[in-house]
Structures are given as C-alpha cells and as structure tokens.
Amino acid sequence: METTVVQIIQSMLAPAVMISACGLLILGTNNKYTSVINRIRILSQERRSLGVASDSDGMERLASIDRQLDEFRRRVVLVRNSVLSYSVAVGLFTTSSLVIGLLSVFSGSSVRYVAIAAFLSGMLLVLSGVSFAARETWEGYRIVRIEIDGAK
After folding, report:
1. Which segments of 51-108 does DSSP mark as H helices, in order?
2. 67: Cβ contacts below 8 Å, ≥ 6 apart
3. 22, 24, 121, 130: most buried, per Cβ within 10 A?
C-alpha cells in the first residue's frame, strides 16, 4: 500500500515541475509586460508634451513616437497573450495533478483521460506562450530599428 501512495505522489509531482517552469516563464514575461507598458506611458507623455510641432525636428520626433506607439500596441498584446497562455497552463497542470490524485480513489479510465487531456492541453498552452514570446521579441527588434533610424 505504501508503494502505491509513493507512486501516486510521484505522479502528482510531474505536473508540479511544469507549474514551476511556467511560474518562471510568467515572472520573466510579466517583467517584460511591465517594461513595455512603462515605455508606452513614457512615449505617450513625450508625445503630449511635444503637442503640435512646427519645426521639422519636432515633426520627425512625433512621427517616430507615433510609429513606436503603433509597434508597442502590437507588442503589448503579444506579451499579454504569452502571460495568459502560461497562466492557463498552470491551471491545467494543477488540474492534471489533482486528477492524478483522484485516480487513487476513482480508478475509472475516464478520469485518466481527464488527467492526460489537462496535461497535454497545458503543454500546448506553454508552446503557445513561447510562440507569442518569440513574436514579441521580433517586434521589439523592429521598435529598436525605428529608434535607431530616428537618431541618424
């Protein structure tokens, strides 16, 4: 009987490893989310302070800010989607772990399918979150290019 309990606990810990991994991904991505939002606020404030520019330098800066804000709007959506994907994945991994624990009480095959489906769905959401994060990194590069081109 004790071996069975140990096996159940070990099985429940497999999704816990993914929960920890997603926690780290959420932490890093959430920091990026905060920095993107702060950059949007800084650019918006600069845009408001410039008002309507009459000289060519001011007009160029306003155009650069507008292009950057457009890029940041797309970027912030990607970061948000990444955080949401990882967060829902944590929920699914937690569900998977709980269902594995319930298998010790209910030995029906349908319960096993729920655990497997929850775990696999969580893994798909991690993949989705990574995909959003990769796209966001690419978008970030485009914004840097706008800033560099504007500094010339």
Report:
1. 56-102
2. 146
3. 22
Q: Distance between CA atoms of 30 and 143, rounded to whole angstroms?
A: 19
Encode pLDDT of 75-109 as tens digits.
999 999 999 999 999 999 999 988 888 877 777 66
Residues near 108 by Cβ (< 8 Å), separated by ≥ 6?
A: none
Cβ atoms of 145 and 41 within 8 Å: the answer is no
- Structure tokens of 56? 């060519």
Q: pLDDT digit string (tens) for 60-81?
A: 888 888 888 998 999 999 999 9
Residue with tokens 């970027």: 75
Give buried/exposed letters for 9-37 (b at 16+ CB in 10 A, else e).
Answer: eebbeebeebbeebeebbeebeebbeebe
Q: Is 108 left (phi over 0), alpha (psi -120 to 50) or beta?
A: beta
Residue ranges of domains in the chain: 2-151
